[in-house]
Design a protein that fits this description.
The chain is mainly alpha-helical. It has one domain: Four Helix Bundle (Hemerythrin (Met), subunit A) (Up-down Bundle). Helix content is 81%, strand content 0%. The chain has eight helices and no strands. Helix 1 packs antiparallel against helix 2. The model has no long low-confidence stretch (mean pLDDT 84).
Length: 200
């Protein structure tokens, strides 16, 4: 348990909150959906704080470096899957994003096994930011479509936006960039991982 520092505990909490916000967002109640968005935002904020806390107090660890991006992937993937379920996004694009994340995660596990942990690229960080912003925008639209919060006219307008092709166009760009970062990640790290492991 020596690795369960506060940053790692917050990362674990972020993972545990994933099914909670999914359950709340899928309920047929605008107020439960609002609570689900609050849980999602709270989970996202733990990512900011745990990184800051780890750097400030020198609590960075290989476990944390591995779990932190994994927790982010769980959070965003869960949000995208909800959007697919609700009919806002196409399944095939979300599946490509998930496939990319699975491949990269397997590579990271292999790197840890070979005692050669890999570092997240700048492009991958931009990918994460883009996905997060898009997830937040759709989540905001989900709240705005509830007439209890915005009234009939705005609710009707937002529903048209949510079921238009615009979100799929944006998701297509995000998917293409996500796949590109995955291929780039493999190319940059495979040569180093193919060489003999350092002595442990």
């Amino acid at each position: 348990m020596q690795h369960m520092t506060l940053p790692n505990q917050l990362t674990a909490l972020r993972i545990l909150l994933v099914p909670v916000f999914m359950f709340l967002l899928l309920l047929d109640s605008p107020y439960m959906k609002l609570l689900g968005v609050v849980v999602f935002v709270a989970a996202s904020l733990t990512d900011i704080y745990d990184g800051y806390h780890a750097r400030k107090y020198g609590l960075t660890s290989r476990l944390g470096a591995f779990l932190d991006p994994l927790a982010d992937k769980f959070l965003i993937t869960a949000a995208f899957l909800i959007y697919v379920w609700e009919g806002y996004l196409s399944l095939w694009m979300v599946l490509l994003v998930v496939l990319r994340d699975v491949v990269v995660t397997v590579l990271r596990v292999y790197a840890e096994w070979k005692n050669k942990p890999v570092v997240t690229s700048r492009e991958a960080k931009y990918k994460t930011i883009t996905q997060n912003v898009f997830a937040y925008v759709i989540m905001l639209l989900i709240l705005l479509k509830e007439k209890e919060f915005t009234g009939e006219d705005i609710s009707a307008l937002v529903k048209r936006v949510l079921h238009s092709d615009y979100l799929d166009y944006i998701m297509l760009l995000i998917t293409l960039y996500t796949v590109y970062t995955g291929i780039s990640y493999l190319v940059q790290n495979w040569r180093g991982l193919s060489s003999p492991s350092p002595s442990r």
